[in-house]
């Protein structure tokens, strides 16, 4: 698939077939995450692949009871290694949430390229996910995604227009433009 086509095709899938994901496909997807950029190239991430049906159910429960997650072939849990992340982005924040997010996005786009569906999961109880997956206290859960073959076409969701999210040379939103235009 062509890159921009992949970006447009990616949708949040909430219904999956029970088909397993071939090992070579899963490895290509995970390798896409491995290749992601990170601040200072520290790569402060770890991914947990959950395949066991009972474990997937427990993870789905820890994600505010989203049972559709357990239908997918695997669930990938994206963990950030806070201690090794670069700590001075913008001179005020650590890089770990951003680094992990970029890597997980690579995984999600690679899954789309392989004909698989995903759904970015940010609704979870971190302590519960850590308990289920045996994640140490000093590791942060940033997001999860089920990965599997879609059982139905994901619904189309709207996106803002570029004019609503982009300005040039200085910060100015379309709302500010509208206010200015109304004033005359």
TrEMBL record:
Pfam families, per the entry: Nitroreductase, TM1586_NiRdase
Known cofactor(s): FMN
InterPro entries per the UniProt record, alphabetical: Nitroreductase, Nitroreductase-like, TM1586_NiRdase
Keywords: Flavoprotein, FMN, Oxidoreductase
Occurrences of domain Nitroreductase (ranges): 7-67
Domain Putative nitroreductase TM1586: 104-178
GO function terms (MF aspect): oxidoreductase activity
PANTHER family, per the entry: NAD(P)H NITROREDUCTASE YDGI-RELATED, NITROREDUCTASE
Family: Belongs to the nitroreductase family.
Protein name: Nitroreductase
Species this chain originates from: candidate division WOR_3 bacterium SM23_42
Organism placement in taxonomy: Bacteria, Bacteria division WOR-3
């Amino acid at each position: 698939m062509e890159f921009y086509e992949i970006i447009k095709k990616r949708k949040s899938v909430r219904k999956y077939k029970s088909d397993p994901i071939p090992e070579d496909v899963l490895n290509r997807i995970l390798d896409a995450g491995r290749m992601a950029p990170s601040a200072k190239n520290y790569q402060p991430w770890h991914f947990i692949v959950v395949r066991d049906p009972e474990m997937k159910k427990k993870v789905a429960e820890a994600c505010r009871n989203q049972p559709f997650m357990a239908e997918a072939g695997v669930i990938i849990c994206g963990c950030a290694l806070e201690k090794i992340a670069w700590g001075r982005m913008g001179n005020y924040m650590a890089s770990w949430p951003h680094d992990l997010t970029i890597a997980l996005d690579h995984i999600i786009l690679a899954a789309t390229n392989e004909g698989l569906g995903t759904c970015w999961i940010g609704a979870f109880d971190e302590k519960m996910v850590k308990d289920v997956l045996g994640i140490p206290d000093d590791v942060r859960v940033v997001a999860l995604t089920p990965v599997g073959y879609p059982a139905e076409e994901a619904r189309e969701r709207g996106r803002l227009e570029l004019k609503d999210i982009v300005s040039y040379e200085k910060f100015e939103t379309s709302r500010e433009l509208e206010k200015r235009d109304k004033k005359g």
